[in-house]
C-alpha cells in the first residue's frame, strides 16, 4: 500500500481548488474548507508556484512541528528548500519580511498572531483554515484563537471556499458528523464512499488494545499508520509499549519543557502523537486507543480532528463501556468485530 501524496498537479484538482489557485497570488486571501478538502494541498501548490516561477520570497508557517515535518518531506520530494517551512513558536522568535506568507490551520491563531503575519507579508498573506477544526478554543484573552469568520471580519480579505472532501471516506464522515460541534456537513462533500465502516472495539485492558493494534498493523500489512492519543503521557507510554513489543514506531510527545520527536514522514513506520500534533496530517489507517470517557473529557474537538485524519480505515479502541460521545451514533454506522473483516481482507 502506498502513501497518499498531498501534493497534486493542477490537472488533478477539482473546480473549486482550481478556482483558488488561479487567483492572482499578489492578493491576500482566505481559503476555507472542511477536513480533507485540500487546504494544505493548495497551500503547498502555491508555495511550489511561487518558487518555480521566481515570484518572490515565500514562507509557509504552520502551528505544529509535526505538520512542519510533513510539509518538509513534501519539499524534499519536489526539490524545494525545506527551510521555507516553519512552525509558529519558532517563526515568531525571529520573523522577517517575506513577499508571501502562507499560514495553514489559521483557525489556531489569535487576532494578534494574524496581525503579526500581516505586518511581515510584503505582497500577500494567504490564510487556510476551518473553524470546525479549532482545538484551542479554551485559550482566553489575547491568545484566544480566532475562527475563520472572525478572521475574515478583521482582515477584510476576500474568501474562497473549498467544497469537496478528498480525504475522508463517507463511511467515516457519517460517524465524525456526530462528534463535530460545528454541525459541519461532511458526508455530502465526500468524493469517496470508502471500503469499510469505522471500528469501535471494546477490550478488557489497555494492553489488549495495544496488542490488537500490533496484530492489525502486521496482519494487514499497513504502511501508513497514525496512532493518536489525547495526552502526551499516553503517547509516550504507547510508544514505549509498542516498541517494546517489536513494532518499529516513531513518536512525538512533550515531557515537561522538553520534546521527544522521532517522526520521519519518509518512512512507513507507524507514527504516534497526540490529537493536537496530528492537525493537518493524514494516514491510510488511524488508530485511536484509550478512548475511555475520562480520557476524552475536554478533548471532543481534538477527537473530531483525530477521527478525520484517515483516508481509509478508522479504529476506535476503549476499555469497558463505550464512551458517551459514541453512544449516540447509530449502530449501523460502525463495526464492533474486527475478525470478520480480517478474514475478508486476508
Describe the protein's topology.
Blueprint: H1 15-21, E1 29-33, H2 39-52, E2 58-62, H3 65-78, E3 85-87, H4 88-91, E4 98-104, H5 111-120, E5 121-129, H6 148-155, E6 159-162, H7 170-176, E7 199-203, H8 206-219, E8 225-229, H9 232-244, E9 250-255, E10 258-261, E11 271-274, E12 283-288, H10 293-296, H11 300-307, E13 310-319, H12 324-327, H13 338-345
Parallel strand pairs: 1-5, 1-6, 2-3, 2-4, 4-5, 7-13, 8-11, 8-12, 9-11, 12-13
Antiparallel strand pairs: 9-10
Give the gist of this structure.
It is built from 13 helices and 13 strands. The chain is of the alpha/beta class.
Structure write-up:
This protein has 346 residues and is of the alpha/beta class. The chain has helices spanning 15-21, 39-52, 65-78, 88-91, 111-120, 148-155, 170-176, 206-219, 232-244, 293-296, 300-307, 324-327, 338-345, and strands spanning 29-33, 58-62, 85-87, 98-104, 121-129, 159-162, 199-203, 225-229, 250-255, 258-261, 271-274, 283-288, 310-319. The strands form 2 sheets. The protein has a 7-stranded mixed beta sheet, covered by helices on one side. The chain has a 6-stranded parallel beta sheet with strand order 3-2-4-5-1-6, with helices on both faces.
Amino acid at each position: 500500500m502506498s502513501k497518499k501524496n498531498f501534493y497534486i498537479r493542477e490537472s488533478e484538482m477539482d473546480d473549486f481548488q482550481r478556482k483558488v489557485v488561479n487567483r492572482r497570488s499578489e492578493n491576500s486571501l482566505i481559503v476555507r474548507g472542511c477536513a480533507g478538502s485540500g487546504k494544505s494541498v493548495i497551500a503547498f501548490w502555491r508555495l511550489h508556484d511561487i518558487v518555480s516561477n521566481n515570484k518572490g520570497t515565500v514562507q509557509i508557517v504552520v502551528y505544529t512541528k509535526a505538520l512542519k515535518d510533513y510539509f518538509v518531506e513534501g519539499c524534499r520530494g519536489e526539490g524545494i528548500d525545506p527551510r521555507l517551512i516553519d512552525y509558529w513558536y519558532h517563526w515568531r522568535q525571529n520573523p522577517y519580511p517575506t513577499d508571501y506568507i502562507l499560514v495553514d490551520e489559521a483557525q489556531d491563531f489569535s487576532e494578534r498572531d494574524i496581525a503579526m503575519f500581516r505586518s511581515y507579508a510584503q505582497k500577500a498573506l494567504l490564510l487556510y483554515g476551518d473553524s470546525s477544526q479549532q482545538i484551542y478554543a479554551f485559550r482566553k484573552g489575547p491568545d484566544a484563537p480566532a475562527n475563520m469568520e472572525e478572521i475574515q471580519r478583521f482582515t477584510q480579505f476576500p474568501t474562497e471556499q473549498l467544497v469537496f472532501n478528498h480525504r475522508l471516506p463517507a463511511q467515516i464522515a457519517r460517524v465524525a458528523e456526530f462528534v463535530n460541534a460545528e454541525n459541519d456537513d461532511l458526508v455530502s462533500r465526500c468524493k469517496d464512499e470508502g471500503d469499510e465502516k469505522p471500528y469501535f472495539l471494546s477490550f478488557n485492558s489497555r494492553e489488549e488494545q495495544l496488542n490488537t493494534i500490533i496484530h492489525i498493523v502486521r496482519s494487514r500489512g499497513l504502511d501508513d499508520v497514525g496512532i493518536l492519543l489525547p495526552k502526551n503521557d499516553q503517547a509516550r507510554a504507547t510508544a514505549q509499549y509498542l516498541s517494546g513489543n517489536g513494532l518499529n514506531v516513531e513518536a512525538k510527545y512533550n515531557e515537561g519543557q522538553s520534546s521527544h520527536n522521532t517522526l520521519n514522514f519518509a518512512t512507513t513506520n507507524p507514527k504516534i502523537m497526540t490529537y493536537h500534533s496530528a492537525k493537518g496530517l493524514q494516514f491510510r489507517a488511524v488508530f485511536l486507543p484509550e478512548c475511555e470517557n475520562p480520557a476524552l473529557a475536554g478533548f471532543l474537538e481534538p477527537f473530531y480532528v483525530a477521527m478525520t485524519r484517515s483516508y481509509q480505515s478508522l479504529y476506535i479502541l476503549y476499555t469497558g463501556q463505550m464512551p458517551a460521545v459514541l453512544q449516540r451514533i447509530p449502530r449501523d454506522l460502525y463495526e464492533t468485530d474486527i475478525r470478520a473483516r480480517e478474514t475478508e481482507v486476508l
